[in-house]
Design goal:
By secondary structure, this protein is an alpha/beta fold. The chain has one domain (4-140): Nucleotidyltransferase, domain 5. The chain is 50% helix and 23% strand. The protein has four helices and five strands; from the N terminus they run βββαβαβαα. The protein has helices spanning 37-51, 70-85, 98-108, 113-140, and strands at residues 4-9, 13-19, 26-33, 55-60, 90-94. A five-stranded mixed beta sheet has the order 3-2-1-4-5, sandwiched between helices. It is globular.
């Protein structure tokens, strides 16, 4: 049985989410605060191992029209380093609107701006993973 971990990779923080035991939905886990490339890669590799992940899903930021952005290239370079450090597959999932959806959800729940900052990235990672799981589960049926 597959076990997924998802990362929403930002310049300052990385949101972490995990799949439920049946791979039908994603659970926001926590937000990792970035330090430097070496420590970040090591920390994410530790998370993958700790969660027992058999596959990692990472959000890939693109422009509204789907074209590559500066952030796309920055994220891709980070993912190249992450892939080299892991023994499990790393796949990319379009992350358009996932952070905006996370903000809207937290605002609708009345969460303060300060608290949202600490939770929005994990929820965005869950949105990324939900999209991926929906897509692969749709293919299985």
């Amino acid at each position: 049985m597959e076990k997924y971990v998802a990362f929403d990779i930002g310049d300052k923080r990385i949101g972490v989410a995990v799949s439920d035991p049946f791979n039908t939905y994603a659970l926001p886990s926590f937000t990792y605060v970035r330090k430097n490339l070496r420590e970040d890669i090591s920390a994410l590799a530790d998370i993958v191992k700790e969660k027992g992940a058999t596959c990692v899903v990472c959000g890939l930021p693109v422009n509204f029209d789907g074209s590559e952005a500066l952030q796309t290239r920055k994220t891709q370079r980070f993912l190249d380093e992450l892939k080299a450090a892991l023994t499990v597959p790393v796949v990319c999932e379009d992350e358009r609107f996932t952070t905006a959806m996370a903000h809207e959800t937290l605002i609708s729940e009345g969460m303060s701006r300060e608290k949202r900052k600490n939770y929005v990235d994990a929820l965005a990672a869950a949105n990324i993973l939900d999209g991926y799981l929906s897509r692969i589960n749709g293919k299985k049926q």
